[in-house]
Amino acid sequence: MRDEDGRRGERSAGGLASPAHVGRIFTRSPDEHHAWISSRYHDHERRVRVHGRDFSFLAEYCALGELAAVRSSYTAASAETTWQPMAHILAVHLSAGRCRHRWRGGEAWLGERGTMLLPPYGYDHFSDCSDSSGVTLPMEVVLRVAEEATGLDRAAVRFTGLLPVTPTAHRHWLTTADYVRRGIYSLALAPPLLLSAAEQMVAASMLATFPNTTMTTDVRGPRDAATPATVRRAMAFIDARAEHPITLTDIAAAVGVVPRTLQYAFRRHRDITPLGYLRQVRLARAHEQLLAAEPGDGTTVAAVAARWGFARPHRFATAYRQAYDQPPAQTLRS
Which domain of life is it from (predicted)? Predict the structure, then answer.
């Protein structure tokens, strides 16, 4: 058995070294598999039936903060698991085998190349010779993003189905999950602003992909005043905190309004969203850092972009050129 738990220099089943932030186990022993599961998961029951001598089990977990990429694979075995309610939510993509999910009195089957939500409310899950990978994050992040986007109270936000609502939504989720998984493994999402943005991206994609109450519930408009003073206070908060991971909820709380009111106030008085203004401030800070760089001090455009929350250098370059009429590399060289 190889149980790596992120120790540098260990080897995976394929013989490749594991990065320090990746935990991985590979075993062909049902007893070792059972011991590993029992030592790590105390909140669920798992029953495994081995089909033959070719049994193997692979599990992998790679996390940055609360955002994680996971993989689980069974060869020549089926597994049935009863999960209790938990604080995290997971969406998995099946690349081999099949699985069945029982939840709220119904069940859903998933075959190869399918994607399913595993909600945090407790469920029974069966997999047969399956190889699945997924992305997980705290349900609290999803609730916050839902409230910010729709105004629906967090207590009313709930997932009502397990499968993607449309093929287009499914494709969008797979693109998001692949981007986040690569960013976690490569540590490209390690900068705090990029990690915060990735968490919000995953939450928003889950809400757009899997059936939930934000898709069906009408929400009344904000009642409290969206005044210029509210906008000024919010702008001051953003200016002071731009280098830190902050959300729409954080900004709204700092000025004493709900997120929808803040959104409305910015659109009404500034013709921009609060997060749009935050991006403008961060772009200006990146400009200042490029101007202040000295020859030979190691400053790069990619590093500056990442520090200020721009995950894709080409998009940063486009926004920068639009704002300053020159590419960031030219500013750095000047």
Answer: Bacteria
